[in-house]
Amino acid sequence: MNTLHGWQRVSFVLLHVYVLGVCGVVLGAMAVQFVGKELPCPLCMLQRMAMLLAALGPMFIIKQTSVRGSDSKVDQSIGFGMSIIASVLGLFISGRQVLLHILPDDPGYGEAVFGLHLYTWAFIVFSTILLVSGLSLMFSRFMTVSKSLDRMGPASRVTVWVLRITIAANVISVFTESGTNWFLPDNPVQYELIEEFKEFLRSRSSADGAQKAS
């Protein structure tokens, strides 16, 4: 089995840290949502999606290391290119939300975490992703994993599943909050899918009661 050494091994480990770090940020935001009972607005959801898109870049590079005959330099460019595009998109979205609440007397949306609101943290995260992706491309001579592995190792498989679970959890969260509506409300106050299900049960109960009365 092929193994990595030196800078290639460091680079390969950092790719996993990259993916898991982004997943940790998204899961942390979801913890604030459910534990703190703060429903995310549409801009918040878009920021989470942009983060997950950014994580797909290094995940693509990790996956390609187990593909025989793959061009590692091309994979590096594609992966970090994806992350750069996603982080630029995320910067626009989070920056817009920061500007919406930039006035001195504006309390902002949601509670602050360590002194900053989540959209401000998102702006910092996207800036960091952009910086890391750019540096990785600048030093690709040392950071490119040019050696193909025989198969994905345990750490890589765990990273894949963490990313999958985070994406799935985010999709479920969006669907639960929006219900059967096409758009999320600007200031959500309830999980529409749960309320729709309760309304369905009430209508069924009323229909059954009316049928028994007749």
- Summarize the main sheet: none
Distance between the termini: 75 Å
Q: Globular, elongated, flat, extended or rod-shaped: what is the shape? A: globular
Taken as a percent bin, the fraction of beta residues is: under 5%
Radius of gyration: 22 Å
Averaged pLDDT = 85
Helix content: over 70%
Number of separate helices: 7
Q: What is the helix/strand order?
A: HHHHHHH
Main structural class: mainly alpha
Number of strands: 0
* Uncertain parts: none
Notes on the protein architecture:
This protein is an all-alpha fold and about 210 residues long. It has seven helices and no strands. It has helices at about 5-35, 40-65, 70-100, 120-140, 140-145, 155-180, 190-214. Helix 1 runs antiparallel to helix 2, helix 1 (about 5-35) runs parallel beside helix 6 (about 155-180) and helix 3 (about 70-100) packs antiparallel against helix 4.
Overview in brief:
The protein is mainly α and 214 residues long. Helices cover 72% and strands 0% of the residues.
Topology:
Elements lengths: L5 H30 L6 H23 L7 H29 L17 H21 L1 H4 L10 H25 L13 H22 L1
Helix pairs in contact: 1-2, 1-6, 2-3, 2-4, 2-6, 3-4
